From TrEMBL:
Group of enzyme by EC: oxidoreductase
Pfam families registered for this protein in UniProt: PDH_C, PDH_N
The name this protein goes by in its record: prephenate dehydrogenase
Family assignment from sequence similarity: Belongs to the prephenate/arogenate dehydrogenase family.
InterPro entries according to UniProt: 6-PGluconate_DH-like_C_sf, NAD(P)-bd_dom_sf, PDH_C, PDH_N, Preph/Arog_dehydrog, Prephen_DH
A molecular function GO annotation: NAD+ binding
GO-annotated biological processes: tyrosine biosynthetic process
Length: 315
């Protein structure tokens, strides 16, 4: 990759993972951390994954060939406005936001016409946040979706493609609108369901709640992992992908009502047909090699440890 200096704004899980990829593959590249939090800036230096750090975003982007926005999607517009005066002529600006249309609309209007914007989204993550949660292998074998704008020059798209390929990702190009609809079903709806299930459990009376935790391995546990995802990040995703999420929630609600009716009338054929179709989808995901966790060092954090289970059950 042909950069002398890269600024990453938002040095959390995704931003710090990109920094680790650059440290591993391009040790000569200068990495600048830009973050609203002084503690995060200090941590980035302490971890040795940034050469310098600043909470002044215009200062943080000065002299950088590539600027990566890795803040919650609702913060992207404000970050673009704050950093714009510092951007170097010919710089490439990219982002990692989980929603594309809203981020493009909020970022583009603040960028000077002497920089190129290449919106992107790595389809990789964990429920953890912050600079210490990142790791270079996060993107290995995952997809990175790039949603170029009609005016984006090819060389800028190639720059961002090279970044994601270096991280070990497979790159796919998509229309921003299509991205938002696809992600509404593959990512946003599952998170909404997980937040709802875990929220329902948290409203239960205390004696029931204790048993829910004790017997969580029967399915609930998997939802709690998803529902532990960052509240600010997910608030912003739902608000910024409102149209696609509401469309998918409507379809989901209709399908749920169909299953509810089948259960009420004891229609086992409807239930079995549906479950057979969904099992086939799981097989397709396994065949596409998208089923396994690629962060074995964090698996222990996902599986309740014996001590925690003992405490929860009061034994
Ligand atoms: P994260 O770990 O919470 O990191 C975000 C960082 O941005 C934090 O250090 C935060 O500081 C900082 N920040 C927030 N607002 C800021 C602002 N206005 N100016 C400068 N810095 C600011 O979040 P993440 O999981 O890396 O997510 C970052 C982006 O990646 C989001 O757009 C998300 O949609 C996208 N993404 C996430 C995942 C995932 O699974 N996590 C996957 C793909 C894409 P404070 O902590 O002080 O607020």
């Amino acid at each position: 990759m042909n950069f002398n200096q890269v600024t990453i704004i938002g040095f959390g899980l995704i931003g710090s993972s990109i920094a680790r990829v650059l440290r591993r593959d391009c040790p000569a590249v200068r990495i600048v951390c830009g973050d609203s939090s002084l503690d995060v800036c200090k941590k980035a230096l302490e971890l040795g994954i940034a050469n310098s750090a600043s909470t002044d975003l215009a200062e943080a982007v000065q002299g950088s060939d590539l600027v990566v926005l890795a803040v919650p999607v609702g913060a992207c517009g404000g970050v673009a406005e704050a950093m714009a005066p510092g951007l170097k002529q010919g710089a490439v600006v990219t982002d990692v936001g989980s929603v594309k249309q809203a981020v493009i609309a909020s970022v583009k209007r603040h960028l000077p016409d002497y920089v190129d914007f290449v919106p992107a989204h790595p389809i990789a993550g964990t429920e953890h946040s912050g600079p210490e949660a990142g790791f270079a292998e996060l993107f290995q074998g995952r997809w990175a979706i790039i949603t170029p704008l009609p005016e984006t020059p090819l060389n800028a798209i190639e720059t961002v493609t090279a970044l994601w390929e270096s991280a070990g990702s497979n790159v796919e190009f998509m229309e921003p609108r299509r991205h938002d609809l696809v992600l509404a079903i593959t990512s946003h709806l599952p998170h909404l369901i997980a937040y709802t299930i875990v929220g329902t459990a948290s409203d239960l009376e205390d004696h029931l709640k204790a048993d829910v935790i004790k017997f969580s391995a029967s399915g609930f546990r998997d939802f709690t992992r998803i529902a532990a995802s960052d509240p600010v990040m997910w608030r912003d995703i739902f608000i910024n992908n409102q149209e696609a999420v509401l469309e998918i929630v409507q379809r989901f609600t209709e399908d749920l009502t169909g299953l509810q009716r089948a259960i009420r009338w004891g229609d086992g054929r409807v239930l079995q047909d549906m479950f057979a179709r969904t099992r086939a989808i799981r097989r397709q995901i396994i065949d596409a090699k998208q089923a396994d966790y690629r962060y074995p060092n964090q698996l222990s954090a996902l599986v309740p440890q014996p001590e925690a289970l003992r405490k929860a059950s009061g034994s």
